[in-house]
Amino acid sequence: MDAVGTLLDDLARRGGTAAVGALVRDHGRSTVDRAVTGGEVDRVGWGVCALATTPTALRAAASVRGVVSHSSAAQLWMVEPLHRPGRVCVTVPRTARRRRPLPGTHLRWADLSAADVEGPVTSPLRTALDCARSMPFPEALGIADGFLRRGLVTPGELVSAAVALRGAGRAAAVTVAAAADGRSANPFESALRAVVLRSGAGSFVPQVVVDAGPLGLVRPDLVDEGRCLVLEADSFAWHGSRPALVRDCERYNALVLAGFLVLRFTWEQVVGAPEGVAEAVRRAVALVDAGRGERGDLQKCRPGPRSRP
């Protein structure tokens, strides 16, 4: 392997970025210059180099001697946010030297402890808390749910860390931590649950197993078992084909025939018109409760095994 190849392997072992001084010390100035001239290595900031294949978020963080944070860090932990961030979020120390970031970088300033950082990115717990403190409730809940779903954070860790916070955003973080649920399937479903939680209507739980009669056991997105109410988050990304449409119709009909009242909401409704979603859920809950009071049990539904998450 030639000198440039050795440098590239070394840079890859360092995570794709490194200080120019360190590379020059270990490989020589001429080797670094040849790698840059050949397009295999880029200068991404004052005194910092990166492999041409290094992800944008890591290049942005290295350029200002920071770490990837917030929703950008969530993505690196394979927790997808409700909205893909338009800019890379990078956190740098409050006392850090002011450096010009790469275009498309959103700088945040905070003093992070060793426990808050794992390599070039904030830790799962720190990332979940940062998002909970700074993002709207539906988006923050989706990220917290995602970390719980992947087993990167436990519910107890999240609640304890949120309660221990001080300063701006603590109340929001505590609210998100208390509501987070790893059973949620995706950030869109989490957003629907956030809207319902804010509405104060019903007692909806994600991904409860229920008996849909001939269709067998199914997991609707959100279920209020006591009222036999089901809420479904219908995303075109998951339902945009003819076979998916057929499955949706079969599922909807089976749930209704099993005694469930089913409300279905699109992305545009949940994200763009949450007040209408909240009002629809409140009215459905009120109708079921009023029907029970006037005529006894309005519906006879078949919940599935309650022990299954």
What is the structure about, briefly put?
The chain is of the alpha+beta class. Helices cover 48% and strands 16% of the residues.
Shape: elongated
List the helices and strands in order: HEHHEEHEHEEEEHHHHHEEEEEHHEHH
- Count every helix, treating DSSP H or I runs of 4 or more residues as helices: 14
Structural class of the secondary elements?
A: alpha+beta
InterPro entries: Restrct_endonuc-II-like (IPR011335)
Protein name: DUF559 domain-containing protein
Describe the protein in words:
It is a single chain. This protein is 48% helix and 16% strand. The protein is α+β, with helices and mostly antiparallel strands. It folds into three domains: 3-54, Arc Repressor Mutant, subunit A; 65-179, no CATH class; 187-295, Endonuclease, Chain A (3-Layer(aba) Sandwich). It has a four-stranded mixed beta sheet with strand order 9-12-13-14, with helices on both faces. A three-stranded antiparallel beta sheet has the order 1-3-2. A hairpin with a 2-residue loop joins strand 7 and strand 8. Helix 5 packs antiparallel against helix 6 (124-134), helix 6 (124-134) crosses helix 9 (170-179) and helix 7 (137-149) crosses helix 9 (170-179). The longest helix is centred in the C-terminal third of the chain and has 22 residues, at 274-295. It is elongated, with a radius of gyration of 24 Å. The mean pLDDT is 89.
